[in-house]
Write a structure and sequence with these properties.
60% helix; globular; mainly alpha
Length: 118
C-alpha cells in the first residue's frame, strides 16, 4: 500500500520549515523561503486540480492548504523584521484570499468548501 500525503502532513512540514532559524543569524531566510516554496507548490497544485474539474472538498483529489499552513509562512516572514518579510507575508495573504475565492466558487460558490479554512 502506498502512502499518500495529506494536508496535515504538508502543513507539519511547512510549519517545521517556518520555524527553522539559523544559529548564526537572526535573519536567515532559508526557513521562510522553504516554507513559502512548499506552500506555493500546494496552492499551484490545488489551482490546477480545481481547474481540471477536481472537487476541492475531496482531499484525495486536492491537497488544499489550510489557513494554518498560510499562517505559519506569514509568521515566519513577520519574524524577519524586514521590508521584504512584510512584502512576502502580504503576498501570501493575497494569494490565500485569491485561492479561497477560486476554489470556493468552483465548489458551488459563496465561500463554501474546504478552501483555506482550518
Amino acid at each position: 500500500r502506498g502512502l499518500a500525503p495529506s494536508v496535515a502532513t504538508a502543513c507539519a512540514v511547512i510549519d517545521g520549515y517556518a520555524r527553522t532559524q539559523s544559529t548564526r543569524s537572526n535573519h536567515n531566510k532559508s526557513g521562510p523561503l522553504d516554507a513559502e516554496r512548499l506552500l506555493f507548490e500546494l496552492m499551484d497544485d490545488a489551482e490546477r486540480a480545481v481547474a481540471s474539474g477536481a472537487n476541492p472538498d475531496d482531499e484525495e483529489q486536492v491537497l488544499l492548504p489550510t489557513s494554518a499552513c498560510c499562517n505559519a509562512c506569514i509568521k515566519a516572514w513577520a519574524r524577519q523584521n524586514s521590508r521584504e518579510g512584510a512584502e512576502r507575508a502580504q503576498g501570501i495573504l493575497d494569494r490565500m484570499e485569491y485561492l479561497d475565492g477560486t476554489t470556493s466558487s468552483s465548489a458551488g460558490g459563496g465561500g463554501g468548501g474546504r478552501a483555506i479554512h482550518p
